[in-house]
Amino acid sequence: MCAQTENAAPEPDSETAVLSLDGLTKRYGDTVANGDVTFDVTAGEIFGYLGPNGAGKTTTIRLLLGLIKPTSGTAEVLGADIRDRRALTEAKANIGYLPDTLGFEDRLTGRQVLDHFARMRGDERRDELLDLFRPPLDKPVETYSSGNRRMLGIVQAFMHDPELVIMDEPTSGLDPLKQDRMHAFLEEERDAGKTIFLSSHILSEVQRVCDRVGIIREGKLVALEDIEVLLERGGKQVWVHLAEPVDSGQFTTDDMIDVEVVDSTVRFTYTGEYNELIAHLARFDIEDIGIGDPQLDDIFKHYYGDDATPGAE
Ligand SMILES: Nc1ncnc2c1ncn2[C@@H]1O[C@H](COP(=O)(O)OP(=O)(O)OP(=O)(O)O)[C@@H](O)[C@H]1O
């Protein structure tokens, strides 16, 4: 599959660009943590920033929040240039941030942590969020499970009702039920007009909640697509059970990838015209057939190759 770059991405509407990255580059010695990363995130979408460990996701997030400085290039966050410290500080009053590692003062209770953030930015949605996410507020944070730490982090990220929320691996440490609650919550926030930027190495999470995805590999943006387009480009997953065994040379066409033949069963990903597939299949004696949508992790493999380590769950 042909990887999309920023050049081929749909033109964003600059009026509604909440995040706008322009050649964002961060080098650490010889390591290019982010290399010329360019894309926009528009208002009211859940944008998934997908890549395996070390791809550069946290670096992008830290650059966007002004926690580190770019080597070159820049970005605008809610209209503020990240190199303009004062403008960025003002913009951050309207941003929620859930870091990958929550840097709370561990001896404080959850309530004290929230009080601290409330003094800085407000907390008009605190009670509503605590009803949903329920961290044990009167215990010191050092006694929290990783799931409860994340719950507290989510409450602090959203309680001042920000326009944009940036989340670094938001569901790590959450059990499946809490992950579901979190995903449903993010969808509600998006429907209410909020913009969510979340990084993830979990393909199923991005597939489930995100409207668009940027895939980052070794610091470079290798794809930028609507989830639906990405899934469409990934073709169809097909399996057929034939009346007689067949060898792969007899069956395979140029539009089939990842062909697997076991006796009389063939599985493959089909990327061509459907009429041609049907004409091709009509030459065989077929006993059963299944055609379905591909999983994002299959598509991901095409970007990353066979040595991909996407860490899919
Ligand atoms: N302060 C630093 N000094 C040197 N190298 C760094 C620093 N921070 C990040 N890197 C390197 O930059 C690259 C990108 O790291 P980054 O943490 O952004 O990746 P990531 O996609 O967020 O990965 P993970 O999911 O593991 O956090 C890695 O090779 C990392 O080792």
TrEMBL record:
Gene3D superfamilies: P-loop containing nucleotide triphosphate hydrolases (3.40.50.300). Pfam families: ABC_tran. The keyword ATP-binding applies. Keywords: ATP-binding, Nucleotide-binding, Transport. It comes from the Archaea. SMART domains: AAA. CDD domains: ABC_DR_subfamily_A (cd03230). PANTHER family: ABC TRANSPORTER ATP-BINDING PROTEIN, ABC TRANSPORTER ATP-BINDING PROTEIN NATA. Belongs to the ABC transporter superfamily. This is ABC transporter.
